[in-house]
Amino acid sequence: MTLIAVDPDSGVAPWRQVRDQLVHLIRTGGLPVGTPLPSIRQLARDLGLSAGTVARVYRELETAGLLHTARRRGTVVAAPPVDPSPATDALAAAAARYAAEVRALGVDPDTAVQAVRAACTPR
């Protein structure tokens, strides 16, 4: 699947990169409903990841209602659930960038959350 790429130097876990990219492709129509996805083993080989990593992504997306797996059809894109907020994808992407920066700075998550709350509080 050439639509997905994993950057080992990004600071974001490979499974998260794959999950975020699949979510984006599904929600933007890059992978329409009914599109078959590669098998877990095939995608793992294509991306140079373990099958367990890809299985985790598929499980999470199936739980979220974005993928459906059936024995005969394999894993296909399901109709995405209605998103109550159009900003959800942008917020998730911003949070991932912030989390990567927090890790690079060596700041603990509780301190990072406090900083976000302080920044979001009107002055």
Keywords:
54% helix, single chain, 5 helices, 123 residues, globular, 2 strands, two-stranded antiparallel sheet, mainly alpha
Write structural notes for this entry:
By secondary structure, the chain is mainly alpha-helical. Helices cover 54% and strands 7% of the residues. It is built from five helices and two strands. The chain has helices at residues 14-28, 40-47, 51-63, 88-105, 109-120, and strands at residues 67-70, 74-77. A two-stranded antiparallel sheet has the order 1-2. β1 and β2 (74-77) form a beta hairpin. The mean pLDDT is 87.
Q: TL;DR of this structure?
A:
With 123 residues, the protein is mainly alpha-helical.
Compute the number of strand runs.
Answer: 2
- Radius of gyration computed on alpha carbons: 16 Å
Globally, the shape reads globular
Helices and strands, in order, run as HHHEEHH
Task: Give the terminus-to-terminus CA distance.
Answer: 47 Å
Query: Uncertain segments of ≥5 residues (pLDDT<50)?
Result: none
> Helix content range of the residues, please?
40-55%
Quaternary organisation of the protein chains: single chain
Q: Please, what is the average pLDDT?
A: 87
Major sheet: size, sense and barrel closure? 2 strands, antiparallel
Category by helix and strand content: mainly alpha
Estimate what percentage of residues fall within beta strands: 5-15%
The strand line-up of the biggest sheet is 1-2
Count of DSSP H/I helices: 5
